[in-house]
Design goal:
Chains A, B: Keywords: Aminoacyl-tRNA synthetase, ATP-binding, Cytoplasm, Ligase, Nucleotide-binding, Protein biosynthesis. 2 copies of one chain form a homodimer. Chain A has 3 domains: 113 residues, Nucleic acid-binding proteins (OB fold (Dihydrolipoamide Acetyltransferase, E2P), Beta Barrel); 31 residues, no CATH class; 315 residues, 2-Layer Sandwich (BirA Bifunctional Protein, domain 2). Helices cover 29% and strands 22% of the residues of chain A. Chain A contains 14 helices and 17 strands. In chain A, helix 6 crosses helix 8 and helix 6 runs antiparallel to helix 9.
């Protein structure tokens, strides 16, 4: 066996010259030899001075390696070198593969240099509760050492699934992908939840959504578009389900006849996406479930569509009284989710035809009942993950709607002007990628599905790179 | 023929009641009738008071419609209504499809309400120069009325191709897609080219590249990752090839043996992408070429790889003397591109093994000649579009490199710390999506390939939406 150590934290002590030194040690950096296994030293154990075990992990898989003193190839110093490896070091191992006579029972190391022990970080609550002496790695420690944390099987699974969700949008829908600007001129009088910056003396802010530009793309005859990109909300939200930067998944499209077409696209996309995740990410879902147990999301072949009024009635029948023209709060949404699961056997459904009063002024109203709107929300496990609607595409009518909502029309001239040169009927929807993944996997905190989450208390790691990028 | 007008700028004058009014007019908004053609009124012409022609465009295609006074179905008022349509209005037309006895020769309208005439916006320079009375729509007017401008066949082609480039990255590489944060804590002492903002009293800036986070993903054992997302540079660049916000296309990957693996992935990706664009976007490329004539990009099945020294020698042989350990300027790059095209018949090639002194400190040096680095640039039509390298993954060595480049190591602690818990050898590359498309299509200005370009003089349209988004 040869062991090439690519990464070593501490300097080795001065030692006697080893005539077999050529068989191990630090690799001359760029000139790697042919190798059999490269992975991380997950656990290291010495047995006396003549033998050492190393469990080498390469993503989900582990190989047990053993080095034994042997004249002419393995020196005692080599055994010592191996036994003193730091956990999580990357090692190259060339050796003979055999079935172990007995499984490796344990491994220990006096002072692990890594601030998070991966075995601790990968345990489920149930395991931790069963054995009281185990370390619980809290969310903050995980995020402080995210490069270590994201190596756990559950995290590898979560971000593989996140990646697959993005792929699915592209592969299933085959729409026109756009990239809209995030730097937006404007002093943003109205919004406190906006990130403001100054660019050459002009007030500028960060886009809170691609709403304006995706609608402009439709006015530019792009037909059907989607965008996956960052969305910025400077909100003071300290909940388990809000971030101040997240990944927006936005669709906008021409409508031929009715806003049901938008729901059809959403339906087709998400059912196909869930199907594909269940098939292609089976192992990832299992890995997540081992640490964070959850039941697979229950969804129907064709997504259930209830009107807001039907939802209202179900709640009323269950003794929950709400304003028939008001919005649902989080608690009521969860209750409705529960009622719908019991009655229809699905945790994924559409609530459509929302009261006009609780939707943005640019939402198209229902032709036959202007107290309601051509809009919908989509729920997963009782929480809203998607919001969609037909938009008002006629500038004169948009102006009227803004006025009747008490908006100073002068402040939204750019938006209204976008529809002055002929705008087709259109609609769309927006989802948050992190929330979609969180609720598909039944996770309890959106920070678990954001690679480097940003919230009002965390905008790190720091950016050192401003001095580095050429 | 029925004509449903969905959008009308000016109020109609008061007129006598039309008994056939039911056969035309504005559509009750959400309740559209079954239609045959929906498109834009591109050109309108009245022939006396009894007949009118309308050319209706749906993306690339045009249908000529004719309405003639006819007792019981078409009134004179209807003909007048059609003749007074605004250009670029969206119309629904139900009628009988026939071959025209003679082609529509012209169309006129006294005062087009749309600030850009699409026929003007779609003309090539050659056409404009041939006929001096034609209007030239300049770049600024185009960007001021981008919703109109992007309807030209060339622009429809450009953004379809941009969309396909993104698809290609995903479909060809099948890597792990990540979404890294754009909000980065830090006061960014070193960089003037950074957008700064203040978030709850903490200095924050916008990511200039996903460099740190994509490398952290590799340290987190993600293997091979890519990201397509916005990149922000507050530079004072007023060139044809710089934007202050563009779409970065970034790849980062573990290296098994040598940095050639990174070039292999780049090579495989771009050759397959160019092949796929040439096949699947044939019509789009033709549409672009009609307005902005260009020769197809010349590239080889396996991308040519020259060392910096070979490039140096070619330039020297052609009488161009440069510093053998310095960088190439834009002019020299173009000259080298020309020499390589003549000698090797390709406009797409890799120049590798750059002098270490002209690359960022985190670039891995060549093991056998530390004056050079394991890095490369890729050129398309004589301009750099991709920059890549192996990175230094050993924190102690990274510290030394930073010091020898005169960087205060304290300011880049976060970056160096990311490699302390075991980092595999790795490398990657970054490209700008807009520049890739610009040079593939031989365009002369990067604003042509950015949907809503941002440069030091333009951060508009304004953001009205801060008051609108719920």
């Amino acid at each position: 066996m040869r062991c090439h150590l690519l990464h070593l934290e501490e300097e080795e002590e001065e030692e006697e010259q080893d005539p077999l030194a050529v068989n191990y040690g630090e690799v001359p950096l760029p000139d790697l030899q042919s190798v059999l296994v490269r992975g991380r030293a997950q656990a290291i154990r010495a047995v006396g001075k003549k033998m050492a075990f190393v469990a080498v992990r390469e993503r989900g898989f582990t190989v047990q390696c053993v080095v034994t003193e042997q004249e002419g190839s393995v020196s005692r110093q080599m055994v010592k070198f191996v036994a003193s490896l730091n956990r999580e070091s990357i090692v190259d191992v060339r050796g003979t593969l055999t079935l172990p006579s007995s499984p490796m029972k344990g491994a220990s190391q006096p002072s692990p240099p890594s601030p998070i022990n991966l075995e601790d970080a990968a345990r489920s609550e149930a395991e931790i509760e069963k054995a009281l002496q185990l370390v619980r790695v809290n969310q903050d420690a995980r995020l402080n050492f995210r490069v270590l944390d994201i190596r756990t099987p559950a995290n590898q699974g979560i971000f593989r699934i996140q990646s697959q969700v993005g792929n699915a949008v592209l592969v299933i829908l085959r729409l026109f992908e756009i990239h809209t600007p995030k730097l937006i001129a404007g002093s943003s009088e109205g919004g406190s939840a906006v990130f403001k910056l100054d660019y050459k003396g002009r007030p500028t802010c960060l886009a809170q959504s691609p709403q304006l530009h995706k609608q402009m793309s439709i006015c530019g005859d792009f037909g059907r578009v989607f965008e996956i990109g960052p969305v910025f909300r400077a909100e003071d939200s300290y909940t388990q389900r809000h971030l101040c930067e997240f990944t927006g998944l936005d669709v906008e499209m021409e409508i031929k006849k009715y806003y049901f077409e938008v729901m059809d696209i959403m339906d087709q996309l998400f059912v196909a996406m869930f199907d594909s995740l269940n098939v292609s990410c089976k192992k990832e879902l299992e890995a997540i479930g081992r640490q964070y147990p959850f039941e697979p999301l229950k969804y129907l072949r064709k997504t259930l569509r209830l009107t807001f009024q039907e939802g209202f009635q179900m709640l009323k029948d269950a003794g929950v009284e709400i304003d028939p023209l008001g919005d649902l709060n989080t608690e009521v949404e969860r209750k409705l989710g529960q009622l719908i699961l019991e009655k229809y056997g699905t945790e994924f459904y559409i609530l459509r035809h929302y009261p006009l009063a609780v939707r943005p002024f640019y939402t198209m109203l229902c032709y036959d009942n202007p107290a309601y709107s051509n809009s919908f929300d989509v729920f997963s496990r009782g929480e809203e993950i998607i919001s969609g609607a037909q938009r008002v595409h006629v500038p004169e009518f948009l102006t009227k709607r803004a006025e009747s909502c008490g908006i100073d029309v002068k402040t939204i001239e750019t938006y209204i002007d976008s529809f002055r040169y002929g705008a087709p009927p259109h609609g769309g929807f927006g989802a948050g990628l992190e929330r979609v993944v969180m609720l598909f996997c039944g996770l309890n905190n959106i920070r678990k599905t954001s690679l480097f989450p940003r919230d009002p208390l965390r905008i790190s790691p720091r950016e050192d790179l401003v001095v580095m990028v050429l």
